Amino acid sequence: MANPQSDDKRPTPDPAEDNAFFPSPYSLSQFTSPKSDLSGATYSNPYKGGRWKILMIGADERYLLTDNGTMFSTGNHPVETLLPMYHLDKAGFSFDVATLSGNPVKFEFWAMPTEDEEVKGLFARYRAQFKQPLKLSDVIETALGEDSDYIAVFVPGGHGALIGLPESEDVKTVLEWAAAAKDKFVISLCHGPAAFLAVGLGERKGSSIYDGYKICAFPDDLDAKTPDIGYMPGHLTWRFGEKLKALGIEIVNEGISGATHQDRRMLTGDSPLAGNALGKLAAEALLKETAAG
Predict the structure, then answer these.
(1) Is the distance from CB of 161 to CB of 60 less than 8 angstroms?
(2) Which of 86, 73, 74, 161 is nearest to 123 (CA)?
(3) Within a 13 Å sphere around the CA of 245, how many CA atoms are in the beta-carbon half?
(4) Element holding 98 (H helix, E strand)
(5) pLDDT range class, residue 3, cuts 50, 70, 90
(6) CA angle 218, 221, 224 (to 5 degrees)
(7) Residues labelled catalytic
(8) pLDDT digits over 36-75, tens only?
(9) Contact between residue 2 and residue 32 where contact means Cβ atoms under 8 Å apart
């Protein structure tokens, strides 16, 4: 979609679905850019071992129901997906893309930096995987043993991460595997950490594997304000940050500034503004890990 400079704060109808909407022209002019802040993705000693790769868990649902009955046309945010991927790719790590259903990854394509050839090029390279991803349950069955080739799990942001992932036993299995394996990283940003709620499924309060962790994530209070400018057509029906806190996770940021945070092997960022910095943080952490053997 185009990114017109406009003062129109009315959400734009999505003709593909009843009562569904894209962000307003005004909110797109404020929150998206034709060029990303991609930089610093040069790694003098990239990983060349050929084994270690990253499991990306993408959003496979587009429509998020809001409190007034409208639906937000969402998915994974391109900048929050592709900038971390770009850094990790340049650092020598490849990706397997999976979704809960095995159906295509959904993107908030209206946020694609359309004049950023490097980012668009990476999207093109992974397009086939985005369109025909693995089914997460199959990955669990075939690729998560003790000799797994995954060094990290990546959950991109975008409101699509609120749909299905927090209630998924498969996501819980993957995150628990990453924690139990001791040497696996979990990378996420913005709304992606909503997937962490899965570790609390069936657990008593205070017993989750993430109790006591500190992360960056998109603030609930800002989500509550975005309908005022038409970014979403209505308000969210639940607050994912509030639920993360109830799980024992501390969110260290109050606003969005591009902040990142590392707590043990969990690497997080606060918003699209953190995409580049989180990619660099993750690439350097994984390179340090592989260099250490």
Answers:
(1) no
(2) 86
(3) 11
(4) strand 94-99
(5) very low
(6) 100
(7) 190
(8) 999 999 999 999 999 999 999 999 999 999 999 999 999 9
(9) no
pTM for the full model? 0.96
| pLDDT tens-digit readout, 235-267 | 999 999 999 999 999 999 999 999 999 999 999
Longest dimension (CA), the chain: 54
Q: Using an 8 Å Cβ cutoff, are 166 and 240 in contact?
A: yes
Q: Buried b vs exposed e over 108-125: b needs ≥16 C-beta within 10 Å?
A: bebbbbbebeebeebbee
What is the helix (H) or strand (E) element at residue 225, kind and residue range? helix 220-225
What stretches of 190-292 adopt beta strand conformation (E)? 214-215, 250-251, 260-263, 266-269
Residue 137 identity: S
Assigned token pair, 225: 């304000």
Give tens-digit pLDDT for 195-249: 999 999 988 877 889 999 999 999 999 999 999 999 999 999 999 999 999 999 9
Specify whether the backbone of 108 is left (phi greater than 0), alpha (psi in -120 to 50) or beta.
Answer: beta
- CA distance linking residue 127 with residue 123, whole number of Å: 6
Give CA 212 to chain center in angstroms. 21
Residue 96 CB-density burial (10 A; 0-12 exposed, 13-18 middle, 19+ buried): middle
- Residue type at 111 in one-letter notation: A
| CA dist list (Å): 165 to 36, 63, 146, 192, 238 | 27, 14, 24, 9, 14
Query: 231 — phi, psi (to 5°)?
Result: -65, -45
pLDDT (mean) for 73-81? 98
